[in-house]
Amino acid sequence: KEVTEKLEEVVMIWTKQIRQVLVESEQIRREADDVGPSAELEHWKSRMSSFNSLLDEIRSSRVKKIISILQAARSKTLLQWKELDGSITIAANEAKDNVRYLYTLDKFFGPLANASPVMMEHIPSLMNTVCMIYCTSPYYNTSEHMTSLFLKITNQMINTCKTYLCEG
User: Fold this and answer.
1) Cα–Cα dist 46/120, whole Å
2) Rounded to whole angstroms, how far apart are CA atoms 137 and 94?
3) Can you give the three-state secondary structure of the chain, one letter per residue?
4) What is the reported pLDDT for 114?
């Protein structure tokens, strides 16, 4: 019983730390007003890396042993643990999926940043790709994500125009 209580304390500490990571990941991002679309890809890559690391840790043999001991002891702390495990898995899958879809836009980021204001040749393909993401992505097709992406694409177009005007 003493061992079980110690292990429950450890799992409760992990639970608190994981909840903090999940809460922080859902907070509104603070970004510069003129950040471009490549920042969106970098954000999701960073998030994917964080959640994949967390999943690796949760699925380590050390953690599995502790969880199996608590299962055998029928610990009540496992209900919260299973819920968090599911939340982390969903967050990791979302980040991985969003990175995969945003990489399809990556080929447009360079031309968008380096083109002259006559960048119209890239816009139809870019919009078709954004439409494909919206129509097929199970996670990225929200109003919030699309607004953020369009804002960053627009920022990049404005920055490109400013650069062109200042150099010309």
Assistant:
1) 31
2) 9
3) CHHHHHHHHHHHHHHHHHHHHHHHHHCCCCCCCCCCCHHHHHHHHHHHHHHHHHHHHHCCHHHHHHHHHHHHCCCCHHHHHHHHHHHHHHHHHHHHHHHHHHHHHHHHHHHHHHCCCCCCCCHHHHHHHHHHHHHHCCCCCCHHHHHHHHHHHHHHHHHHHHHHHHHC
4) 75
CA dist 58 and 61 (Å) reads: 9
Low-confidence winner among 22-31, 109-118, 151-160 (lowest mean pLDDT): 109-118
Locus of tokens 């003129």: 34
**What percent of the chain has a predicted confidence (pLDDT) above 90?**
56
Average pLDDT over residues 51-71: 92
pLDDT tens for 85-99 read 999 999 999 999 999
Q: Is the dihedral of CA 83, 87, 93, 97 positive or negative?
A: positive
The one-letter code for the residue type at 90 is I
Whether the per-residue pLDDT at 118 is higher than 90: the answer is no
